[in-house]
Design goal:
alpha/beta; L-2-Hydroxyisocaproate Dehydrogenase, Chain A, domain 2; 6-stranded parallel sheet; single chain
């Protein structure tokens, strides 16, 4: 499967290596406006070819070759500051998303938006590209859900994969964790031995502020969000029909 990635900053690079490790790409096409960056990342990733499934990694100066990809992941945009909400990025990132959408109009595959504010940018990208709404999607609350499962698992000393809990709504500050619907091995979370519902407000605060805590320490969130779209594409390619 040919996969394109637009924006080769920290997040785009993480999406690239996660996609290669997932073994779903036969060809990975990279693009960035900064001269040489995509080419440098392509060279670096290609040097690790013996560590992942066979795939060709190439850089492109324009977006035209990416229109033929089965999926294009959009990770381009300005990173947030520790004191800045995701919505505060909209003025800058909407302009970038609109430009990318116009350039990939006529794309034959999916557009997967990672850039923030992701939920709003999905709509901007869909309108700019003219693609059907079902072919322009975002990672939504995938990362929020992963964070919630890790938080609950850590509290109960259980593997995050064993926690069946979901976050709905908008990614980030207004996300809604569904504790009432959460389960562990078929048992409702609120009936699990040792779980205290009184912990939930504090966990929700941790969930919503997780990105800001990371940004304050390392400047950006990269690894977990890189794993998200790689897994999403793998599930879609395999037709797993899973959450």
């Amino acid at each position: 499967m040919r996969i394109g990635i637009v924006g080769m900053g920290w997040v785009g690079a993480s999406v690239a290596i996660s996609t290669l490790h997932a073994g779903i790409a036969t060809e990975l096409l990279l693009h960035d406006l900064r001269p040489g960056l995509a080419e440098g990342e392509a060279m670096d990733l290609a040097h690790g070819a013996s560590f992942y499934e066979d795939a060709r990694v190439r850089a492109h100066d324009d977006l035209a070759p990416l229109r033929d990809a089965a999926a294009v992941v959009v990770a381009a945009g300005r990173g947030g500051r520790p004191d800045e909400s995701r919505l505060a990025l909209l003025a800058d990132t909407a302009r970038i998303a609109r430009s990318i959408g116009e350039e990939v109009a006529g794309a034959r595959g999916l557009l997967v938006v990672v850039s923030n504010p992701v939920d709003v940018l999905v709509r901007v990208m869909q309108q700019a590209s003219g693609l059907p709404p079902e072919r322009v999607i975002g990672t939504g609350t995938m990362l929020d859900t992963a964070r919630l499962r890790r938080l609950v698992g850590a509290r109960l000393d259980l593997a995050a994969r064993s926690i069946h809990a979901n976050v709905i709504g908008e990614h980030g500050d207004s996300s809604v964790p569904l504790y009432s619907d959460a389960r562990i091995g078929g048992v409702p979370l609120r009936r699990w031995p040792g779980w205290d519902p009184g912990l939930e407000p504090a966990l929700t605060d941790q969930l919503r502020n997780a990105a800001y805590e990371i940004i304050a320490r390392k400047g950006a969130t990269t690894h977990a969000i890189g794993l998200g779209p790689a897994n999403l594409l793998r599930w879609m390619q395999r037709g797993e029909r899973r959450e």
